[in-house]
């Protein structure tokens, strides 16, 4: 067990020594990973055609759904019932005391 831990510590020290080694240009070595496309200050990779078409179809369906329901079920926005005329409300209904009460 102790030998395996010593081996791991040795590998760690070796990697740190390699990482801290200075190049002739004065820069430290960098570990370069090529797991994905590089997109620093440039546009990223273009999505696949299926993803772009799927996004357009989903967006078109969403707008159709919204506009269709705005046209056919506008009561959701305007309300189902007529708005009452405020001029017909009495002072008692509005909670205003009478003028002669002090």
UniProtKB/TrEMBL annotation:
Top-level lineage group: Eukaryota
An annotated GO BP: mitochondrial respiratory chain complex I assembly
Membrane topology: Peripheral membrane protein
Localisation: Mitochondrion inner membrane
Gene Ontology CC terms, in alphabetical order: mitochondrial inner membrane; respiratory chain complex I
UniProt-listed InterPro entries: NDUFB2_animal
Keyword annotations from UniProtKB, A to Z: Electron transport, Membrane, Mitochondrion, Mitochondrion inner membrane, Respiratory chain, Transit peptide, Transport
Role this protein plays: Accessory subunit of the mitochondrial membrane respiratory chain NADH dehydrogenase (Complex I), that is believed not to be involved in catalysis. Complex I functions in the transfer of electrons from NADH to the respiratory chain. The immediate electron acceptor for the enzyme is believed to be ubiquinone.
Family (UniProt): Belongs to the complex I NDUFB2 subunit family.
Subunit structure: Complex I is composed of 45 different subunits.
Protein known as: NADH dehydrogenase [ubiquinone] 1 beta subcomplex subunit 2, mitochondrial
Organism listed in the record: Anopheles epiroticus
């Amino acid at each position: 067990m102790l030998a395996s831990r010593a081996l791991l510590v040795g590998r760690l020290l070796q990697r740190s020594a390699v990482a801290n080694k200075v190049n002739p240009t004065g820069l430290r070595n960098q570990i370069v990973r090529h797991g994905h496309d590089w997109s620093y200050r440039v546009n990223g990779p273009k999505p696949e055609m299926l993803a772009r078409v799927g996004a357009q179809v989903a967006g078109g369906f969403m707008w159709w759904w919204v506009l269709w329901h705005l046209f056919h079920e506008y009561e959701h926005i305007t309300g189902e019932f007529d708005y009452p005329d405020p001029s017909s409300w009495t002072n008692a209904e509005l909670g205003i005391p009478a003028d002669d009460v002090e």
